[in-house]
Amino acid sequence: MASAPLLGVVAFLPLQAHAADSLGAALAKLAPSADPKVIGLAVQASECAESQGGTPSNRLAVIDYSKPSSQPRLWVFDTVNRKLLFQELVAHGKNSGDADSTKFSNAPNSLASSIGLFRTSDTYIGKNGYSLRMTGLEPGVNNNALARAIVIHGAAYVNEAMAHAAGRIGRSWGCPAVSTAVAHKLIDALKGGQMVFSYYPDKKWLGSSNYLKCSSNQLARAEAVAAVQAGT
Questions:
Q1: Which of 16, 155, 160, 214 can pair with 220 through a Cys bridge, CB separation 3.0 to 4.6 Å?
Q2: Domain assignments of the chain as residue spans, ordered by start
């Protein structure tokens, strides 16, 4: 008689352990051209940040810098309603590579992109028009983003015509620039404390990022909070 409750607990634990995967799997289905492993890592990092006391977010942007700049490699998701809001081209920094990005930096004046987890903050009008500031959450990886003015903004050099003609889009000074046609709406969807996850298969970062090391219990708690937000 005593074994029945125990079995119930044992049966529930694997569901908790894979709770983070459920959102990742759902978002990956919305973006078939994205690598599901990258989407899963983005969800894991975002939920890990929230489990450590971060403010809950309802938007998640994923940039996969392992893809060439001529292909859409930025996805913005509504994680509460589980919807794909944007799938776009996005530029990398001039010193990160040509058509493909292979080098990343946190250093000032490097003109290179940064990888890792960011949280968005406020918007402003600058030399590139309507722009969105981001705070890099990973020391030594992207925490100089604010000081470097690594922001999301629109740029005329991000367009499909150039991607087809030149095999790549233009490059920024490190900012994840997007098409001017979508910049304003995309920025509005991401402003005010949302999460941005920029990926590249850098072994050192993947092995050391604190946001990719949360325990299953931490991720399960974050997923439970997300489920409550979604009303599921």
A1: 16
A2: 7-230
Taking Cα atoms as reference points, which of 175, 196, 67, 157 lies closest to residue 111?
175
Which pair of tokens denotes residue 203?
């072994």
Asked whether the beta carbons of 42 and 62 are under 8 A apart, the reply is yes
Rounded mean pLDDT, 100-113 = 98
Rounded Cα–Cα distance for residues 13 and 30 (Å) = 27
Instruction: Please classify residue 139 by burial: count the beta carbons closer than 10 Å to its beta carbon, then call 0-12 exposed, 13-18 middle and 19+ buried.
Output: exposed
Band (3; pLDDT cuts 50, 70, 90) = very low
Per-residue pLDDT of 193-225, as tens digits, reads 999 999 999 999 999 999 999 976 655 555 555
Q: Report how far residue 107's alpha carbon sits from residue 110's, in angstroms, rounded to the nearest whole number.
A: 6
Separation between Cα atoms, residue 226 and residue 195, nearest integer Å: 14
Whether this model's pTM surpasses 0.90: no
Q: Write the CA distances from 27 to 9, 35, 186, 195, 209, integer angstroms.
A: 28, 11, 18, 15, 22
Q: At 53, is the pLDDT very low, low, confident or very high (cuts 50, 70, 90)?
A: confident
Q: Is the pLDDT of residue 10 over 50?
A: no
From first CA to last CA, the distance across the chain in angstroms is 32
> Max Cα separation, the chain?
72
Considering the domain 7-230, what is its CATH architecture? Beta Barrel (2.40)
